[in-house]
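Handoff note, outgoing to incoming analyst
You'll be picking up this chain. Sequence as last confirmed:
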Amino acid sequence: MNDVTAALVGGLFDENGVSAWARPVLFGTAGDAVRSLLPAVVDACCFVHDGRDCAIAGAGSIALDAANRFAALASLPESAHVLVIAAPFALAQGDALTRLANTHMHTGYGVSVLAAERQGFDEDGQPIPHNMCTCAAMFTGETLQKALATGADTLDALVDAAVAAGAQKGVAVTDEIIEICDGGSAYLAQLALIRRVNFALIQKGVQLFDPANTYIAPDADIAPGATILPGCHIRPGCKVGAGAVIGPNTILEKAEIGAGTMVNNSQVYESKVGEKVTVGPFAYIRPQCVVGDGCRIGDFVELKKSTIGNGTKVSHLTYVGDATVGERVNFGCGTVVVNYDGYHKYQTVIGDDCFIGCNTNLVSPVTLGDRVFTAAGTTVTKDVPAGALSVARARQTNLEGWNDRRRAAHEKEKK
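Most recent structure output, in case you need it:
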């Protein structure tokens, strides 16, 4: 038997058929936002829904009864306590559901509700909730089953039925609760979530220059001492080390950024960037890249599925794809790893201490040994041994007076 089960009740749609639980809220949905708020004591989470509602990550599915949104709660796994959430919402205080659970479980109430504010006290000394529909309530398993047997079809009716059956009612008070029912309320919920996430980071020791224009997922792990500049989107699954400077106008997604690294006006997806690296401006690091410590990934550089060794510099206007690059390599401007023939992708291997001249093409599959030097404008199609110079370009020819004669001929045509 579970100690605590959370039940999220779907079946809420606006006049256009849009699900309240699917409304976008800060890199996720309203359902994801509620799921992230659940107390640590919750053993299992279930989402009561039908085919019109998308599943919620981390929540099991229970079929919705169209006639009564709450009837399916009778089929929940056996639990000592059940946290019922009737609608998606955002909270000004992120620990409100935890306090609701503590209030309920430590006092022995049969049912407890989350209230947005106090409006006096009832005859038992309990705060009276604000006059609004209850979004979250916690029941003992036995109390919930008794309330469901009455046929109650709203959460408020379930609470009333529990009290009528003899359950003592508790109230946990919090600040603003924003119920998400349409696009406007979803936007207000997002603003509340942004404020909560960003203020918590500031309190932790992260410097945010413009919190109102900085968008950080609740699960982002940002170390004290990091700086986040305006216009950044730090999406779910990110980790940022101490002393790192992110932004302005940077997107990170499932990215790990090392301590002391700067990522300026760039995008990093599903990749790891080491310590004391400079990235950007306008760099694009695609998934499955690993960039070592002390590297330089400069302006208009694109990396794809590549490993870059410590101290390597890819300074500007370069594409590196499907490559393993050693340490202390220098890429000249305009280098291209030619990894795709229109049908298949091929690997390139570059050893340590290489110097790749400007406008070099490395036609994969190809391997360069340690300390290789490629002359500017070279197209490398064969492996290059360690310590060698690779030159692959046509010998220069000067035709004296050729352009003067050409210009003179065109001038005559104009007359």
